[in-house]
Design a protein that fits this description.
Number of helices of chain B: 11
Shape of chain B: globular
Distance between the termini of chain A: 44 Å
CATH topology of chain B: Rossmann fold
Number of strands of chain A: 14
Order of helices and strands of chain B: HHEHHEHEHEEEEHEHHHH
CATH architecture of the largest domain in chain A: 3-Layer(aba) Sandwich
Largest sheet of chain A: 7 strands, mixed
CATH superfamily of the largest domain in chain A: Thiamin diphosphate (ThDP)-binding fold, Pyr/PP domains
Largest sheet of chain B: 6 strands, parallel
Structural class of chain A: alpha/beta
Shape of chain A: globular
CATH topology of the largest domain in chain A: Rossmann fold
Strand order of the largest sheet of chain B: 2-1-3-4-8-7
Radius of gyration of chain B: 19 Å
Helix content of chain A: 25-40%
Largest interface: A-B, 36 and 42 residues
Bound molecules: thiamine diphosphate
Radius of gyration of chain A: 19 Å
Oligomer: heterodimer
Strand content of chain A: 15-25%
Number of domains of chain B: 1
Helix content of chain B: 40-55%
Amino acid sequence: MTVMRYREAIRAAMMEEMERDSRVFLVGEEVGHYQGAYKVSEGMLERFGEKRVLDAPITESGFTGISIGAAMVGLRPIVEYMTWNFSAVAFDQILNNAAKLRQMSGGQLTVPIVFRAPNASAKQVGSQHSHAMEHFYAHIPGLKVLAPATPADAKGLLKTAIRDDNPVLFMESETLYNIKGEVSDDPDLLVPMGKANIVRPGKDVSIIAWSRMVHVALEAATELAKEGVEAEVIDVRSLRPLDETTLVESVTRTHRAVVAHEGWPYGGVGAEIADRLQRLAFDELDAPILRATTLDVPMPYNAKLEQHVIPGVARVLENVRAVLYRS
Amino acid sequence: MTTTLPKSDELSLDLYRQMHTIRRFEEEAARAYAQGKIGGFLHLYIGQEPIAVGASSVMRPDDYLLTTYRDHGMALARGMSPRAAMAELFGKVTGCSKGLGGSMHFFDVEHSMLGGYGIVGGHIPIAAGTAFASKYRGEDRVTLVFFGEGACSIGDFHEGLSLAALWKLPIVFVCENNEYSMGTPMSRTMSVEDVSMKALGYGMARDRFFVESVDQVREHLAEAIERARTLSEPTLVEIRTYRFRGHSMSDPGKYRTPDELEDRKKKDAVLRARAELVDEKGLKEAVEKLEAEVEEVIADAVRFAEESPEPGIELLEATTYSGEFAR
Ligand SMILES: Cc1ncc(C[n+]2csc(CCOP(=O)(O)OP(=O)(O)O)c2C)c(N)n1
C-alpha cells in the first residue's frame, strides 16, 4: 500500500497499463510537454516518449475520432479531455461512432478506448465549464461510465477500464485531485465495474452518491449521526453498469433513499436510480426517493450563487429529513 | 494599403488612453485575484491591447464584436465602463453580466459587445450568424470576431469560415496569434506557420501582419471592414502578437524562457505608443495628465465593485428562460 493523491493514482494506473501493454497510448491537450493541465500526466512524456504521449491541438472531435479509428483496428487509446465540458465538441464521435460501431458492424468490431477528464463543478468557472456530463453519456447504450471517489478506486477502476474491450468514460474531479488515500501497489489489482461500495453502513436511510458527492454524503451522515440518524452511504462508483443489487439490498434495510449527485434534476442518473429502486423495491419503500442535485439552472459565476446551485451538505440533509418525515 | 486614416495628436492620445486603461484595469484585476476577490479563471490580455483598441476604433458603434474568454480588453475598447467590467469580475450584480457570467463572459449588448465565450472556436459560427442577420435585414453592419491561433484547428473555425465565404457574409475573422495555445507553441499545434493561409481553401480574402502599433491595426482592419461593409465579403486577418502574462492566472508559464518574455516586452506597443507621444511629439504633460485620470477611473471601478451588492437567487430562473420557467 502507498498513500497517494487521486491524481497520482490515475497516473499510476495509466503508467502501469502502458508498461504492460504497448497498444495503450495517451492523447489530449497539454498532456505531454505541459505535464497535464491538472498535472495528472506529469512525467509520462519523459517515461514513454512522444509516440505514446501525444499533445493534440484543440481538436476534440478530431483526436476523439482518430482514437476511435485506432481502437477499431487494435490500439487501446486513453483520450484525455482538458475537462469533460470540452467533450461536447466530440459528442458526435462518442455517440455515433464509439458507442455504435460494435452493433452496427454486427459485432465484428470492438472499440477498446478510455475517455477521461475532470467532470462537474470546479470553483467559479461559470456556466460553460461546470457541466456534469455523466448524465448525458450514461444514457447511451454501448458506453460504460465510471465515477470514482477515492484514489484506490480511481486506480483500480481505471486499470479495469483500460483492459475493457468497450468504450469507457471515466469521470474525475478537479476538486478530488488532491485528496489522499491508500492505494494498492499490486499492478494486477483491478476494481470491478458494476460494483457499488457501502462506505458507511447505516440502517435509517440510504444516501446514494458518486465522485465528489460521496464526500459530501459522508459529511451529511456525520451530521445525521448527531441527530441519532444512522445513514448508509453508498458509493455507486460505476454508473453504467449499475449495481442494482447493492442498491436494492440497502434500501431493503433502510426503506428510504436519497440520491445525491451533481448535474441537473431533469432526467439523469439519479432519476434512473430512483426508477430502478421503485420498480425493484417498491414494497420496501417508506417514502418517495428524493434527489439532492444541482439546481435546474446554468451555473452562475458569483461564488454565493454557485454554492447555492451546487448540491452541498445542507441540500443532502434537507432531503434526508424529508424522506424521514422529520422536516 | 488603400485606406489612409486621419491621424492627430488628439486621436493618438485617445488611443493611448484606451490601451493604458485596459492595462491598468487588468493589473488591478490581477491584484484583486491574488487577494481572492475574483474567482474562477482570469485570462489577461496584457500585451495584446493595440488589437482591441485599434479594432474598436475603426468599427462603427453598431458593428458587432464577439471574442474569447480573454475578453476584458475588447469589452473596454467597445465602451463598456470599467465599473461594469470590474464589478463583473467581483461577481456583483452591477457587473456587465450581473455577476452571473464572470471574467470569461463579458456581455454588453448596448455597445454591440456580443460576448466572451469559453469553448474554443464555438463563437466563430455564432459570429458568422450575426453577420448573416445583418445581411438578411439589409443592414450595412459588420461583425468582427476574435480568436487565438489555437482555435484555428477546431472544426467550428473551419465551418464558420466555410459558410461565411459561401454565403458572402459581412464579417472579419481576426486571429490574435499570440504564439501559444495555453502551454503549446504554435509549432506544435499547426502544420503551417501562416494562419492566414487557411483562408485560401475557402477563397476568402486574407491579411497578415506583426503588430507594431495601434495605427497599423487600424489601417489593416479598416480595409477588411470596408470589404465586409461594401462588398459583403469576409476576410481572415492574422495578427501576430504576444501575451505577457500566463494563459490564465493559474499558469506559471514554464514553457517559455524569461529571455524570450523580456525580449518581447521590449517591443511592447503600448509603451512604444507612450514613448512616441512623450519623446517624439513632446506631449509629456498630456500623457501624464491622462494617466492620472486613468488611475482615478480604475480606483473608482475597484471601489464600485467592492461596494456593489451581490446578485440574488431570484435572478437564476429569470435569466434561464425568457418568459416563464419551463419545468
Ligand atoms: C473546445 C475547448 N477545448 C479546450 C479548451 C481549454 N482551453 C481554453 S483556452 C485554450 C487555449 C487557447 O489558445 P488560443 O486559441 O491560442 O487563444 P489564447 O488563449 O492564446 O488567447 C484551451 C486549450 C476550451 N476552452 N475549449
